[in-house]
Amino acid sequence: MKRLQPPIMVPRQIDLPVATATKLTNGVRLYHVSTPGQEVLRISFVFAAGSAHQTAPFVASTTLNLLSEGTQNLTAQQIAEKIDFYGSYYDVNIDRDYAVVTFCCLEKFFAPTLQLAEEILLHPTFPEEEIAIYCAKRKQRLAVERSRITTQVRELFSQALFGKDHPYGVSYDESAYDRLSREEIVAFYRNYYTANHCFVACSLSDNPQLLSAVQALASKLPAGGSETPFIFPTPHPTKHLFNPFPNAVQSAIRVGRLLFPRTHPDFIGMQVVATALGGYFGSRLIRNLREERGYTYGVFAGMVNLDHAGYLAIATEVASEATQDTVQQIFLEMERLCNEPLPTEELENVKRVMLSEVLRIIDGPFGIVDVTIENVQNRTDNNYTNRFVETVNLITAEKVQDLAIRYLQPSKFTTVVVGDCDIKPITKR
User: Fold this and answer.
1) What DSSP string describes 271-297?
2) What architecture does CATH give domain 240-419?
3) Three-state SS for 178?
4) Which of 24, 39, 199, 410 has the fewest beta carbons under 10 Å from its own?
5) pTM above threshold 0.85
């Protein structure tokens, strides 16, 4: 019997559930995705309490990570034991803009898990002994991490793009953990873990009592006082930064430039450009630096979206002796995208990669919640996913080339190298 490969199907439309939005009496926005038949539930509390908002070094991440280390009624050990007993899941995550507190549980253990959520969110005590243990561990871990070129280049790249004093570029010496006080942590919690800094995203079954219970908990968040909106300073990019790392066998390289956040009309198009350049395993940079030259195991290019900025970044680690040519090849591949339209087959492959990634992300209610959170953070809704699919499907090779010409000028790029070998900056075109 002859075996035939099934045809490759490219989605033209994705039916992503639209989250039902409700504004609670204290101002919290709650986004509910109904998931009938699912026994596992998820509730994520998203606070505008990322590191860009912190009032003292490391206070944002410390506050978030210590929420569950003791409350008015439970010790840290009791909280951990209860989470384990119910088979529930508790997780926190922080970036420059947001802190996210997530609870997952089986529906039959929803009530006790929500009680734990209330303790953690509304009644943390931040015990002095837990603060001391956490800060000592984090100080030691950060010192170890900063002994690696990958950590150094990541921090230097943010500094080079935005400026060393910008909220998105600043970094602190690990000794700042020694000066972090409980008073600063409590003040940050009281100012930022409030209703006016929060929205909630959840995936629940069609039991209305579950949604009512989440609404009741979210309604207990203190309203928070009125604040003067924080105005982000203007970034001041640096053209080139090199941090010597004597005797390093590899160089860590970051190349990128400031562009725009996801609300910009060219953001999706630039995602196509970035994917073609280095966003998947068959990309131009993979073929050049890995397959043809053997300089690296991997290289990645992608668009990064922040609340008040966005940028294109290219990242790789290569042997020290290949540093200069690697940077040269990166710019040559960008120049090729400017000078030559993508062949039809390559463009169609890029589209398939991007759209299949969308399908992978939204495969299940938890992925849909993640997408919902990202859409809310970017001041849009779940209809954005179909706009993304439509834009990717309709983009032409000519449009990709036009975007490359407009945004891939070497003179606008920042290059950061950490290693034993510096490079000569690329300045042509």
Assistant:
1) HHHHHHHHSSTTSHHIIIIIIIT---S
2) 2-Layer Sandwich (3.30)
3) helix
4) 39
5) yes
